[in-house]
Amino acid sequence: MAAFPSTIIILLFFNLNLLSSAYLLVHHLNHNDHNYHHSRPILQANNSGCSLFMGSWVHDDSYPVYDSSACPVIDPDFNCQMYGRPDSDYLKYRWQPANCELPRFNGLQFLEKMKGKTVMFVGDSLGRNQWESLICLTWSSVPRVATQVIRAYPLSTFKFLDYDVTLSYYKAQYLVDIDNVGGRRVLKLEDISENARAWTGVDVLVFNTGHWWSHTGATQGWDVMESGGSMYQDMDRMVAMETAVRTWGRWVDKNIDTTKTRVFFQSFSPTHYNPSEWSGSANAKSCYGETAPVSASVFSGVYPNEMKVVDAVLKEMQTPVYLLDITTLSAMRKDAHPSIYSGDTSTGQKSNPNGTPDCTHWCLPGLPDTWNQLFYTALFF
């Protein structure tokens, strides 16, 4: 199996006074304190360094890259245009990093460089959101190539047969295993062996976790937790998450051959249920009705506890893991959620738009396309 070329990558921090958002500064400085073993790319623009994850959203009429009707893999949950979203400006924003240009995604180049390889997204439905986006972006460049799709649980695959490229999604909301023991779902915080069987030998792995750790009641994905040989009805959720992510980190350090496999971790994807987080109007109650991003000049946000957990684990790992740090740039996109415009009609969303909107996932086309543009940049530039 061909190894990826090794590259020495240096991250430069520059002209912090040019960043208008105080939150961006705090977020940057928090990360600068960490002695990460992973690195971020530098693109050259007038001989200056580029930090990909700090910048602003700019309107660009050349977007979107594809039309939802031309990509049949999009789940109803993410297909906002099909399910009646009346506005389209949210499709026409491009992420502009500070002081450089982000390479545009090239599906043909992606397939040629990844020939014979597999990319697997592992995690919750935000990983599925990104997986479907990558399929659509790539397919839009080569719409006539032979493909094969297999939807299954927990592993779904999409193959570009002419290039022998496989894009996969493995559902593992908590990363660690869930076993059925005596009719109870046991979340095994220190066991990942069952899930990890599917990850062995994959060329590029993209992990995420976060949202399911706060679920309770009927939406909770487990009945009891197991840690240190003991069963728990519940525990501090961030403590549980950190235990699980450390289990994942140990598996990566023990099992990943970095000459054959690249490992990415997708940072926490923010929600938009609380307008006070983006200085929303007094009448706003959620992301419903939002049609434009938050300006960087007025943006104020929080650094999610879930990311503090991930940061703590990544900085202690021996294996290089590239952090796709999409939290801040995504937090600006209050306009990019399905809201009530999805295939989920059973909850009466349209009759009560402020009651049950989806302000967690993202429309396709939409924000996850930018996540994949950044992923593409990290892979090849």
Automatic annotation (TrEMBL):
Record's keyword annotation contains Chloroplast: no
One Gene Ontology term of the molecular function aspect: O-acetyltransferase activity
Signal peptide: 1-22
Organism for this UniProt entry: Ambrosia artemisiifolia (Common ragweed)
Membrane topology (UniProt): Single-pass membrane protein
One Pfam family here: PMR5N
Similarity annotation: Belongs to the PC-esterase family. TBL subfamily.
Protein name as annotated: Trichome birefringence-like N-terminal domain-containing protein
Keywords recorded for this protein, A-Z: Membrane, Signal, Signal-anchor, Transmembrane, Transmembrane helix
Domain Trichome birefringence-like N-terminal: 49-101
Compartments where located: Membrane
Keyword Transmembrane: yes
One cellular-component annotation, GO: Golgi apparatus
Trichome birefringence-like C-terminal domain: residues covered: 102-377
